[in-house]
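Lab notebook, bench 4. We co-purified these components, and the gel suggests they stay together. Before we commit to crystallization screens, I want a quick structural picture of the whole thing.
Request: model the full complex, all chains together.
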Amino acid sequence: MSTDPTNGGRPKIPLAPRFWSKVNVGDLRECWEWDSAFDAKGYGAFFYNGRTRRAHHVALLLSEDSINTLDELPGDVIRHTCDNPACVNPKHLTPGTQSENIKDHVRRTRDDRLTDDEIREIRRKSDEGATYVELGEEYDRHRSNISAIVRRESFDWVD
Ligand SMILES: [Zn+2]
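Here is the predicted assembly.
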């Protein structure tokens, strides 16, 4: 077994178990709160590759297949949809992966992110018979996004 020079030469514990052992993992809809050190802004702090990293960034690294290193993460645009900085539930984080996606995502999250109330409204109107196309026009979303919202494939934490 290799040793980790950043860990006092003790046996190296694989990243994922070392990370998740510091998290109160719960239901996907719940916030998974970091249960270790925090930085000054209330974000979980995790020591990794010789540096202190934000725990929610590491959570995305571990959960997104398209992200291979923390340097690929657009650190300034990762947002908590739950507004809970201590949360590391990947479902509550909005990552950007490739630069186009990032730009797209930044625009969406900054300018016209749907609120929880709007999500509930969309689901209610769909129940009442509005089509995905109609709702898409009303909320400026593609009908596939509306469909995912109604079927709770996205925003599944909104009750
Ligand atoms: Zn959360």
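The pocket of zinc ion is lined by residues 31, 82, 84, 87, 89, 92 (CB under 6 Å). Worth comparing against the SEC data before the next meeting. The longest helix spans residues 99-111.
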